[in-house]
Structure formats: structure tokens, C-alpha cells
Design goal:
The protein is mostly beta strands and about 110 residues long. Helices cover about 10% and strands about 45% of the residues. The chain has a seven-stranded antiparallel beta sheet, covered by helices on one side. Strands 7-8 form a two-stranded antiparallel ribbon. Strand 5 and strand 6 form a beta hairpin. The longest helix has 9 residues, at about 80-90. The radius of gyration is 17 Å and the shape is globular.
Length: about 110
């Protein structure tokens, strides 16, 4: 379930297991996907992926975990393949939004 739409190309979705997925992009060549959990006080990074095809087209995917957060900044120190990045992202299943259209409730077409 997407519950917050940030600025353009930035969204937050709730995933199964009470994870929060943030997907943000500054363009086709640069994307960040971070997975968070709420520890009762603040969001904690579980793991994240960084794609930068502009900086390094030969090795655009990088991975990091909460242990790689330094002074509040998320680092992605591990180079990974696209398949590894997809496997890491696909572990988190977004909960779909179930809703009724207003037109259906009011009997409108």
C-alpha cells in the first residue's frame, strides 16, 4: 500500500512484515530503493540498493545495510549484479490498496 507520495519520483509503500519501502529516482540513470523498519522511535535502514548508470555503467548496482549508515548517511559499499539487486528488492512484497470507487458507492457510472 503506497501511503505517502513525496516529491516527484519519490514514494513510500508499506510491505508485508511491516517494512517500509522507499523508491526514489532523480532520472533514468539514478535510483535508490531503501527498506526500513520502525523501531518505536525512528526508521531504521534494513537494507538498500543504489543504481547509478551515469557514474559507472559497467557496475551500476550497489547494496548496503543498516550497518553501512555513517553519520546518518546511507552508504552502499557492495557492488552487486542486477539479479542480486532484484532478488534483494523482491523479498519485500508491497501490500495492495483495496478501495471502493466513490462512483460505485453512489451508484454513479
Amino acid at each position: 500500500m503506497q501511503f505517502l507520495n513525496g516529491f516527484t519520483r519519490n514514494r513510500f509503500s508499506l510491505c508485508e512484515g511491516n517494512y517500509l519501502k522507499n523508491e526514489a529516482s532523480s532520472g533514468a540513470s539514478n535510483t535508490v530503493i531503501n527498506i526500513f523498519r520502525f523501531d518505536g522511535e525512528e526508521l531504521q535502514l534494513v537494507e538498500g540498493l543504489y543504481f547509478d548508470n551515469w557514474k559507472d555503467p559497467a557496475q551500476p548496482w550497489h547494496y548496503g545495510t543498516g550497518a553501512d549508515v555513517i553519520n546518518g548517511e546511507i552508504r552502499y559499499p557492495y557492488a552487486v549484479t542486477e539479479a542480486q539487486a532484484n532478488a534483494a528488492e523482491n523479498k519485500y512484497v508491497v501490500i495492495p490498496i483495496h478501495y471502493n470507487r466513490f462512483s460505485g458507492i453512489m451508484g454513479l457510472q
